[in-house]
C-alpha cells in the first residue's frame, strides 16, 4: 500500500451546517436531554490517546503533564476563510448559574498551533483554576475531576468539519495526594455516561503492545454496545512492536479474526517526541513513520485501515452518517421533550413563594374542586374527563344507595310483620314477603359500588361497618297481647296512649341501626369522591398530601354532624308520642278495620240468588252486629292497637325516610352550606393563616429545584428548536 504526502480528505456528503448545529446543541447541554451524534475517544491513561488526538487534530497537547485529563475535551474543526483557534469552557449540566457565568466568560483566541503549543500549559492552568480543579498550582481546588468541558475550536480554509470528544483516561492505580479510589470510580462512571447513548460512536483507543483481552476500556464499550455496532477499535503505538508475531497478532485483529467489531479496527503509529514544531513538519514526520505500513505484515491491510489520514477520513464519514440518521429525529424528539417539559411545569402551577402566590394557587385548586362538585351533584358528567371514573359520579351513587335503603327499610325495618294488608299498600309492600334472607333470619345488605371501609380508617369512629339486618318476625298479635297485658290500666273500653308509644318504639327498634348503615354508606361514597376529586385538581403530590391531611380533619366533624342529624330524626320519631296530621293515617286505620270486619263476615256471606255468581254477596244485619260486638274488651283493644300501629307505622316510616334523605343527606352532606363538599372552597383558603397556608401550599425545596430545572430545560430546548430549524 502507499500513502501519498499530498492526499486530500474526501468530501463528506453531510452538510457542514448540520454538524455545526449539532455542536451548537452540545454547547448548550442539549445532550443532557437528548442523545446527540458524537465521536467519543476513550481509553486507559497510557493508551496513547493524547498522542492519537494530537495527530488527528494538530492540537499540541502538553507532554509529561496531566493537565488535560481531569475533564472532557471537545475538539472541533471548522472550515472558515480565516485561521483561528478559540478556547472556551462549556459548563457542566449541573453547574450553578454563578459558576456557569464565570466559565462562559472565558475565551482565549490564538492564530496558530505553534502559538498554542507555547501557551497551552498556562492556558490549562487558568482553566483548572476556573473549574475548581485541585492541582499543584491550585491546591485550593475542590475537585479532582469536573463535569465541565474544555472546547477547542480550530478554524481554517483547509479544515474539514470534525468533532471529537476526549474523555479522561481510566486508571487502575491511584497517586497519593493526587487521585483516590473515589476518583477512579468517578472517571469510570464519566466514561460510561459519555458512551451509553446509541448515537455515540465509541473510539476505543487500545495500545498495540498490550493484549486487547486485558483492556478494561473494551469491556466498558461492550457493556454500552453489546452488539458492537458503534465501536471502532483504534490500535496505537504500532511502531513499538518489534516482534513479527506481535505485529501479526495485531494484523489478525484488524482482519476480524479475533474479537470482531462491526466497525472494525484501525491502526496508527505513536506520535514522535519531537513532533511539536510547525504543522507541516509534524505531518512530514508522521508520514515518515507511517512508511512502516508498507512492510510485512502491515502491507496485507487495506489502505483505509491504517494511518492517521485515512482514520481522519473514516471518522468524518462516521460522524456524517450518524448525524444524517439522527438529524430528522432530533427535531421531533426536541419538540416532544419541550412539550413534555412545558406540561410538567404547568402541572406544578404558579410559583408559590409568597403568601399571595400560595393563596392564589390554593384558590385556583379550590375553584376547580368546586366546579367538579357542582357537576357531580348535577350529574353533568360531560363537564370534565375525570367523570369517566365511577367514584366521581357522586349523585348517581348516592341515589342508587338511597333507593336501595328505601327498599331495605320498607321490608326489614319493622320488628314484626303486620297481620293484614290494607289495600293501599305499595307494590313493594305487597311483595315484601318474597324477600330472601339467610336461614338464620339475618339479612346481609349487598351494596355494590360502595368503597371498602378498610380503605378509610380515619372514618372508623364515625361510621358502622356491620351491614347485617335481622329479618322481621311473625306473631305480631301474640307480641301485642304481651305489650297490652304489661301496660294496660284503668281504661274503660279503650287503652292508654302509652301502650301505642311502647309498641311503636319496639316495632321501630331497628331504625337507628339501619339509618346508621345508610348514612355510613353515603359518607363512604362522599369521602371517596372528595379524595378522588382532590387528586384530579391537585397534581403536586406533596401539596395533595398536605391538603388532604388538613381537609380530612375538618371533614370528620362534618360527617359526625350529618350522622348526628340522622340519629336526632330517629329519636324524634321513636321517643315522642306518635302523632300525625297525615290523612292517610285515618284512611289506613279505617281500611284496616274494614278488612278485619270483612274477614270476620266472609263465612256468613251468601248469594241472594243461589247459582247466580254475578249477584253480590249479602249478610244478615244481625251477623254484622255480632261481628262488631261479639268480642271481649281485651280482644277488641289488641285488634285496635294493631290497626292503629300499622296505620301509623306506614305514615311514620315514609315520613322518616324522606326526612333522613332531605335533612341528613341532601342538606347536611351534599347541598347545604355546611356540607363537607363545600368545605374546600375559596373562602376556606382565604381563612387560612400564613403558617397554615405555607404548610399546605408552600413549595418544598424539591419542588422549587424541580421548577428551576424545568425552566432551564425549556429555555435550552427552545434554543435547540431555533438551532434545528
Blueprint (SSEs and pairs):
Elements: H1 16-27, E1 38-43, H2 49-57, E2 72-79, E3 84-90, H3 97-104, E4 108-110, H4 113-131, E5 149-156, E6 162-166, H5 181-195, E7 200-207, H6 216-224, E8 231-236, H7 244-254, E9 265-267, H8 279-289, H9 308-347, H10 355-377, H11 394-412, H12 427-430, E10 442-444, E11 468-470, H13 476-487, H14 497-507, H15 511-537, H16 541-575, H17 583-601, E12 606-607, E13 617-618, H18 621-629, H19 633-671, H20 682-686, H21 690-697, H22 701-723
Parallel strand pairs: 1-6, 1-7, 2-5, 7-8, 8-9
Antiparallel strand pairs: 2-6, 3-4, 3-5, 10-11, 12-13
Helix pairs in contact: 9-22, 10-15, 10-21, 11-15, 11-19, 13-14, 13-19, 14-19, 15-16, 15-19, 16-19, 17-19
Span between termini: 44 Å
* Number of separate helices: 22
CATH H-level superfamily title of the largest domain: P-loop containing nucleotide triphosphate hydrolases
CATH topology of the largest domain: Rossmann fold
Number of strands: 13
- Spans where pLDDT lies below 50 across 5 or more residues: 1-12, 422-439
What portion of the residues fall into strands of 2 or more residues?
5-15%
Shape: elongated
Helix content: 40-55%
Global structural class: alpha/beta
Radius of gyration: 46 Å
Overall structural domain count = 2
- Strand arrangement within the widest β-sheet reads 4-3-5-2-6-1-7-8-9
Biggest sheet descriptor: 9 strands, mixed
Any guess at the CATH architecture of the largest domain? 3-Layer(aba) Sandwich
CATH class of the largest domain: Alpha Beta
Average the pLDDT over all residues and give the rounded result. 85
Biased composition (Acidic residues): 426-440
Protein name: Interferon-induced GTP-binding protein mx2
GO biological process, one term: intracellular distribution of mitochondria
Pfam families: Dynamin_M, Dynamin_N
Amino acid at each position: 500500500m502507499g500513502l501519498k504526502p499530498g492526499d486530500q480528505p474526501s468530501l463528506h456528503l453531510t452538510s457542514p451546517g448540520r454538524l455545526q448545529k449539532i455542536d451548537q446543541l452540545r454547547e448548550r447541554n442539549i445532550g443532557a436531554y437528548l442523545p446527540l451524534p458524537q465521536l467519543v475517544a476513550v481509553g486507559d491513561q497510557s493508551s496513547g490517546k493524547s498522542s492519537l488526538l494530537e495527530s488527528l487534530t494538530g492540537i499540541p497537547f502538553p507532554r509529561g503533564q496531566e493537565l488535560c485529563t481531569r475533564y472532557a475535551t471537545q475538539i472541533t474543526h471548522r472550515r472558515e476563510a480565516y485561521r483561528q483557534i478559540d478556547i472556551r469552557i462549556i459548563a457542566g449540566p449541573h453547574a450553578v448559574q454563578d459558576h456557569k457565568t464565570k466559565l462562559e466568560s472565558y475565551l482565549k483566541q490564538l492564530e496558530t498551533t505553534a502559538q498554542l503549543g507555547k501557551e497551552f500549559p498556562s492556558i490549562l492552568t487558568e482553566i483548572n483554576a476556573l473549574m475548581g480543579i485541585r492541582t499543584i498550582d491550585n491546591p485550593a481546588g475542590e475537585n479532582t475531576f469536573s463535569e465541565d468541558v474544555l472546547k477547542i475550536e480550530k478554524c481554517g480554509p483547509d479544515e474539514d468539519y470534525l468533532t471529537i470528544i476526549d474523555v479522561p483516561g481510566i486508571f487502575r492505580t491511584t497517586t497519593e495526594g493526587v487521585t483516590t479510589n473515589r476518583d477512579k470510580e468517578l472517571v469510570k462512571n464519566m466514561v460510561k455516561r459519555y458512551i451509553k447513548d446509541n448515537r455515540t460512536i465509541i473510539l476505543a483507543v487500545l495500545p498495540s503492545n498490550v493484549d486487547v483481552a486485558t483492556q478494561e476500556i473494551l469491556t466498558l464499550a461492550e457493556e454500552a454496545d453489546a452488539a458492537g455496532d458503534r465501536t471502532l477499535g483504534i490500535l496505537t503505538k504500532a511502531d513499538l512492536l518489534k516482534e513479527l508475531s506481535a505485529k501479526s497478532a495485531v494484523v489478525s485483529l484488524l482482519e476480524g479474526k479475533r474479537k470482531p467489531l462491526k466497525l472494525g479496527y484501525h491502526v496508527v503509529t505513536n506520535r514522535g517526541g519531537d513532533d511539536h514544531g510547525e504543522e507541516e513538519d509534524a505531518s512530514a514526520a508522521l508520514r515518515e513513520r507511517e512508511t512502516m505500513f508498507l512492510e510485512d505484515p502491515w502491507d496485507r491491510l487495506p489502505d483505509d485501515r491504517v494511518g492517521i489520514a485515512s482514520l481522519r477520513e473514516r471518522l468524518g464519514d462516521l460522524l456524517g452518517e450518524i448525524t444524517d440518521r439522527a438529524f430528522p429525529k432530533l427535531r421531533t424528539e426536541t419538540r416532544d421533550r419541550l412539550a413534555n417539559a412545558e406540561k410538567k411545569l404547568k402541572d406544578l402551577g404558579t410559583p408559590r413563594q409568597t403568601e399571595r402566590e400560595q393563596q392564589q394557587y390554593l384558590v385556583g385548586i379550590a375553584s376547580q374542586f368546586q366546579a367538579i362538585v357542582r357537576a357531580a351533584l348535577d350529574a353533568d358528567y360531560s363537564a370534565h374527563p375525570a367523570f369517566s371514573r365511577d367514584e366521581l359520579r357522586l349523585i348517581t351513587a348516592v341515589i342508587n344507595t338511597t333507593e336501595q335503603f328505601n327498599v331495605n327499610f320498607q321490608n326489614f325495618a319493622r320488628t314484626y310483620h303486620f297481620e293484614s294488608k290494607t289495600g293501599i299498600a305499595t307494590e313493594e309492600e305487597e311483595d315484601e314477603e318474597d324477600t330472601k334472607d339467610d336461614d338464620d333470619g339475618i339479612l346481609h345488605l349487598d351494596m355494590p359500588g360502595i368503597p371498602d371501609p378498610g380503605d378509610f380508617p380515619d372514618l372508623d369512629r364515625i361510621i358502622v361497618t356491620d351491614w347485617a339486618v335481622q329479618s322481621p318476625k311473625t306473631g305480631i298479635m301474640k307480641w301485642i297481647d304481651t305489650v297490652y297485658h304489661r301496660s294496660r290500666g284503668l281504661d274503660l273500653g279503650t287503652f292508654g296512649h302509652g301502650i301505642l308509644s311502647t309498641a311503636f318504639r319496639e316495632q321501630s327498634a331497628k331504625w337507628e341501626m339501619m339509618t346508621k348503615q345508610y348514612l355510613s354508606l353515603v359518607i363512604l361514597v362522599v369521602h371517596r369522591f372528595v379524595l378522588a376529586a382532590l387528586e384530579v385538581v391537585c397534581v403536586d403530590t406533596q401539596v395533595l398530601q398536605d391538603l388532604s391531611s388538613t381537609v380530612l380533619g375538618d371533614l370528620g366533624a362534618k360527617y359526625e354532624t350529618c350522622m348526628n342529624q340522622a340519629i336526632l330524626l330517629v329519636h324524634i320519631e321513636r321517643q315522642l308520642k306518635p302523632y300525625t296530621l297525615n290523612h292517610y293515617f285515618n284512611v289506613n286505620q279505617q281500611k284496616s278495620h274494614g278488612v278485619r270486619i270483612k274477614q270476620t263476615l266472609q263465612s256468613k256471606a251468601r248469594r241472594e240468588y243461589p247459582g247466580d255468581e254475578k249477584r253480590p254477596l249479602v249478610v244478615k244485619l244481625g251477623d254484622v252486629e255480632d261481628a262488631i260486638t261479639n268480642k271481649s274488651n281485651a280482644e277488641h283493644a289488641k285488634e285496635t292497637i294493631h290497626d292503629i300501629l300499622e296505620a301509623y307505622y306506614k305514615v311514620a316510616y315514609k315520613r322518616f325516610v324522606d326526612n333522613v334523605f332531605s335533612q341528613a343527606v341532601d342538606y347536611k352532606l351534599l347541598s347545604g352550606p355546611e356540607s363537607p363538599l363545600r368545605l374546600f372552597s375559596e373562602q376556606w383558603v382565604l381563612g387560612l393563616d400564613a403558617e397554615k397556608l405555607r404548610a399546605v401550599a408552600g413549595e418544598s425545596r424539591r419542588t422549587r429545584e424541580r421548577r428551576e430545572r424545568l425552566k432551564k430545560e425549556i429555555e435550552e430546548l427552545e434554543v435547540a428548536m431555533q438551532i434545528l430549524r
